[in-house]
Amino acid sequence: MSFRICARARGKSRAFTLIELLVVVAIIALLIAILMPSLASAREQSRAAVCLANQRQLGIGSRMYLDEHRGEFFHHHDGWVLDDGTQVDTLPTTIEGVAGGGVGHSAAEKPWVIYIQPYLRNREVVFCPSDGTSRSRALTYSLDAFNGGIESADDEPPPTSELAIAEREHLTLQSFMLNSVFTHKSARYALEGALYGFLSDTRAVSLRNQNIVMFSERNSEAMNARDNDAFGSVSQDDYDTWVGEAALVRWGSDAGQHENQGWLRYNRHGRNANYVFLDGHAERMNWSKVRELQFPDRVVRRPLDNPPD
Ligand SMILES: [Zn+2]
Ligand SMILES: [Zn+2]
Prior knowledge:
Elements: H1 2-9, H2 18-68, E1 80-81, E2 87-88, H3 112-115, H4 143-147, H5 162-169, E3 176-179, E4 185-186, H6 187-191, H7 201-204, E5 213-217, H8 220-223, E6 238-239, H9 245-249, E7 272-277, E8 282-286, H10 287-290
Parallel strand pairs: 1-4, 3-6
Antiparallel strand pairs: 1-2, 3-5, 5-7, 7-8
Bound molecules: zinc ion (2 copies).
One zinc ion binds next to loops.
């Protein structure tokens, strides 16, 4: 009001001068610059919330699966898994014996997205909105459509199956990864007294870490990368904790430009990521807090000197 009165009093035109216009433009530009980061972080906050809601569905679905299967997940392999990923039928008697030298994987990995699918609303809930990698387009609901129902690791999935297409085009099948203590028997954990056999509800009761992490966020960017032959794999949907912390969050120089990363995307949402726990709840956590909760006895295997904070 005072501007109009003042302008009229001086008998000048009420149009803006060029300087005034430039000042207004500069102020708007400044406001945008100030607001943009907080808008971006608000967007990321809402993506993190959607991710957490999706993980809650996954937690509930997994609990339903476990409750209907006597507290156990499906098994990937029935042998004891050694540190190098090979298997033996008889548990080694010494800790030196768990390093490796068994036979390679014989059975095909079982995709949890299909096994747990009947207990989920849809396949969309296994994705995190902050996982910006290209998603698998045709989300399938049966083992047959997913990988042709292959039973041996030597078999190729049919070329038109979802898995084969994803592997050809480096597409993401899920944004979360299953802690493999549920589907594998670690020889190391058995000999170290941390966990003897598959982790089940019955066994969890006697663990030092009774509410172990069940799902973590997948580092799809690095796992699907065409230049990460040493560690990347489109089909990988689970992670082994007994090999140590480096595989989880910091592979090392063999991974080239992905060396400061690991299977898990511990910083998917700012400095944190979301995790699903055995009791079915999901929680946003920092790596420094969640790292020991990945292990059955809360002891981080081969801990990094400087783990991410
Ligand atoms: Zn396996
Ligand atoms: Zn997420």
